[in-house]
Each structure stands twice: as C-alpha cells, then as structure tokens.
Amino acid sequence: MTAPSATSFDIREIPFSRRGSWLDISPVVALHTVREKLHLVSHKTGMHAIFVFEPLQNGAPVEAVVDATPTTLRWSTSEGEIEAVFENDSVLRVRGRSAELRIADATPELTPFTGTYLYTDPIDGAAVFTSYETGRRYRITAISGSLAIVGSEALGAGERSVTASGAEWEIAIEEFDAARAPYRATGTFDDAAAAVAAEFDHYVESIASWRSERTPGVSAACYVLWSATVSPSGFLERESIFMSKHWMDKVWSWDHCFNALALAPGLPQEALDQFQIVFDFQDASGALPDSVTHSEVLYNFVKPPIHGWAFRKLRSTLEAPLERQTLTDVYDSLVRWTRFWLDRRRVTGHVLPHYQHGNDSGWDNSTTFDHDRVIEAPDLAAFLLVQLEVLAELAAELDRHSEAASWNSEADAVRSALLDLWNGDAFVAKAPLSGRESKTSSLLNKLPIVAASHLPAGTIETLSARISEHVTEFGPATQLTDSEEYEADGYWRGPIWAPSTAIIEDGLRRAGQAELADLISERFRRLCERSGFAENFDALTGEGLRDRAYTWTASCYLTFAREAEERESTR
C-alpha cells in the first residue's frame, strides 16, 4: 500500500499546509476568490493573503506545473524546479534549482491602517514584512543563494518584493509576533520533508489503521483534516480543526462534533479536545457560540444540540473508558447547554424550544423556514430528546439519581411533544405564536429519525420511506429534487451535505433500517472518492460545490468508511 504521505492532491482544491500551522499556500485568497498564482495565506485575525509566489526563469515570469503531496509543494518549470515544505507550524522552507522565485506583497498599497510594510533587517539582512491585517511579521531569510529586495522602507503604493535566486538557493519564510532570533537552519530541506512524511503517515495510521483497498479516499480525507488543524493561538486554547483553511476558517458549534468522531478511534485525547472546544466559550446562559476562530467569537446565532448524540457515538468508539472527571466535565457542560434550550428558548406553556432563524439549525436557508423563521422544529426536538436521554444515562452513571429521574421526566414530555408534530405522513415545524405549519419537503423534517428509539414503528416505516425519496445516485438531497424549491447549488435547498447524511444514516441504522443506511453510506463514500471533500455536492451530478476542502465532509467519509470496514469484518 502506498504511503499516505505520497498521496497527491490538486492545490486548487485543497490548500497546502500542515498540522498546527496557521499558514497555507493556495490560489484561494478570500470568499469564493481564486487567483491564478499561488499565495501564502495566514488565518490569524481572519483570512489574509500575505505573499503572491511567481516562478521566474532568467528573471522573467514563466509557466510552471504545480504538484502537491502532504510533504512537498513543487513548481516545475521548463528548466528547473522550486519546492516548499513546512519545517514546522510557523516556518516554510523553499528551495530552487535553475529557477528563481519572486515573493511579492499581496496588498501593494500601504496606508496608516492597512497593507504590509517591508524593511531589511540590519541585524541579519533578512527581508521582513509587517502586516496590518494579521498583526504579524513575515521574515524571509536566505539559507543559500541571494535575495533581491525591492521596496524596502517604501511607503504608500509601490512594489514590495523579494526574489530568491542562484544556481541552487534556499530560503526560510517565518510568521511570528514582535520578535524572534535570526533564523538558523537546524536540518536540511530533505530532513524537514522526511519529518513531515513520518508525522502524517503516523497520523493516518492512528485514526485509520482499518483502511483497505475498499477505502481509497482515506489518505486524502486524513490530509484535509490534518492540514486544517491549527495550534493553540488567540482565543483558541486547544489544538483545533477548522472547517477549512480556505475561507471557512472557523470552528462552528456542531461541525466540530463530526471531526471529533473521526479522530476518536486512534487519537482519543485529540477527539475529546475537538468535542469540548466550543464548551470553552459557553456563556452565562449555557449557550454555545455560533463559531470561534483566532480573534472572533460569535454569539448572534447558535447551532443545534447534537452534542448528546455525538458524545454517545464518540464514547462508543473509544478503546479505553473515560475517567470519571472527564465524564463529570462533559455532563456539566451538557447540562448547561440543555438548560439553555429549556430555559431560554421555550415560550411559556410550551414543551418544545424554538429556533430563531435557520442559522440556529445549521440549515441556514432550508425550506422548512420559508413560512416562518422562528419555529419549533422537529429536528431540534429530536436532538434535544436524545440529549436528555444521554444526560439521564450520565447522571445515573455519576450516581446523581435524582437528576437522572428529572432528565427522564423531561425526555418523556419532549417525546410526547415531538410526536404531536407528526401529521401521519411527515414531521412539521410550527411557529410558536401562530401555530402555522412549515413545508415538509426538506430533509430537515426527516431528521427525527435520529431519535428512532422513541418513535412508533409505523412512524419509522413512513419516515424511512420519505427519506428514501430524497436519496439520489450520490446520497440524500437536502431538498426533494422534484419540488419547485429545489436548487442545484442552493446550499440547504438541494445539495448533499455530510452532516445531514451522517445523522440520517445513523438514525436509520438505529431504527433497524440497515439496508437503506447501507445504501446511503455506500453512495456518500463513492461520492467523496469521486468528487473530493467539498462543503456540499450537487445532488444530481455529484459535482463538488462551494469550499472544496471541508473537514466535516472528510470526517464523515472516514467514519462511514471505518464503520463499513467493521461491518465487513464481522460478516
């Protein structure tokens, strides 16, 4: 089997980076913005292009073929080549042979509040760029060869660039805060590449030792996860997996659950960190933030309470039992999160809590919200029901028996209210004040299958049949494809998404609908192997849409693949 570190990928689809780094190299420089040339991009204080890379031959721009693996990025020109490797999370090593590299400021105008200033460090002769956008410094040091610096100490508009040249040359590019000792290479470029290869291969073996020829997408999926991981910095005090090192460079408060599930088989502490990270930002009401990143925590929306479901699934995957203190910490966090929904999101006299907007559900523009944005939704009720059940189990395990009884009582009430949303053919959402019912053509209305153990057999049969109507050649479309509201690239109004697929598949399996669950798992895995790990996919063509390197898609693929391999091994 080929080493995972030898896996090649398209740099226009997946950025080149490494675990822990806040930097990447990509032509993607902003929301839906793709340049012709590759850029060095930083994700500190937001997504900001720092440098544009331009290969030269004899001083003139030249076309180059770009190849990338988890270890090395390579530009191949007609006469030479340039290679890059991340020596560590803040240092990029670049070397060239019979080709030069121009490294230019990506924001050519400097103002008192924006842009990048360049100066030549009098201590070691390095070129140093200071960026207003990231608040960091970027130092280019020649290890061998020479640097031609243009625009040193210049103000206003104008060129600021560094060109590395020589028959064979090598440089180091660093990102740091206010100061750092002059760069000194402690090993060779090849040493750095070998270390990255060993690290990535170990990562893949840790979380996907089960892989086989039946799971050809594993190495690429692992790279999407590994390369989108950042070290603790800014508000984030744990190692964190972003949704992407494209423009979705945040941790959202349900996305993280799917990444935790992918890590759980072989990296249990890292999985727990991913699960718990958003709870570090739980507010006084118990609410989780909508999203967290380096310099921003947003509370204007929340995300659905899938955390009880996710923790139960995560725990079942771990090889070793969790310590009692860990269980206590998770229980206390889930209690506060659950009380937020029960205490702050219920109308007086109502059993079910409500969303205030589609964003609260994670299904931003689902047709379920077409009539009303503020709704008591069936998916919310089902997630909460599962979470209440998990809380009752944890409370009993922690010898908090009166609390367990209270959670069970609350669960009984929510179950009854959830079943009141069943109209005999579908689950509906209702506006809490008017009672107006929602449309039912969205897959969101079928998510109560996640609470299958609480649903009558007849409801499960009908709900499963309605889910099957969403399933295309590639998986479950988020909107019925024959409905008038269906949009091929309509975000939650048609495309296939990983989280909805994972929740539906798991619910069907728990409901005893193994055949349909197997079909969905198989089709989604083949979709990823064909179209990569995009944010979402055209339900009818399978084309990857939006952000093309999305971690929860990679994580759901890994979870589905592992579970399929486990089923295969027991046959």
UniProtKB/TrEMBL annotation:
SUPFAM superfamilies: Six-hairpin glycosidases. The keyword Nucleotide-binding does not apply. Keywords: Glycosidase, Hydrolase. InterPro entries: 6-hairpin_glycosidase_sf, 6hp_glycosidase-like_sf, Glycoside_hydrolase_63, MGH1-like_GH. It comes from the Bacteria. Gene3D superfamilies: 1.50.10.10. Pfam families: MGH1-like_GH. Residues 250-553 form the Mannosylglycerate hydrolase MGH1-like glycoside hydrolase domain. The keyword Hydrolase applies. Belongs to the glycosyl hydrolase 63 family. This is Glycogen debranching protein.
